[in-house]
User: Fold this.
Amino acid sequence: MAPHPVVHWTEGGVEHSARWRSERGVPPPKRVVVADDRMTADEAYGLACQGTALLWRSDFQNARQMLIALASRADRQPRKPKKPAESATPPTPAEAFHLHRQAQSQRARTLGMLLIPVDAGLPRPAAARA
Assistant:
């Protein structure tokens, strides 16, 4: 049986690693930067689009806010050129479906770049102890 995948990052000049768990089964990211409240959503979105994972080091509520901000940037409509190309034809239904699925995949991949560490040493809720 293969060992569990591991994610690696540098924090404060020290190399760290942790067991990687992905519900989708994706491999651990190759590039990881530490992110917190000081990082702007635009900066975070740029890094995430380039495939750099953001290891969140602030409170959970602010991570949710960052995820919402990343989602709003991912959902923005691309800017259209001022002059439409004369030879451009509307996509067929199959092409439109493919483009839609491709956009959904890119959105999920980008939002999945925000990493939240889960510490096994945290106390469990009373209901989970039973």
Q: What stands out?
A: The mean pLDDT is 87. DSSP finds four helices and five strands in the chain.
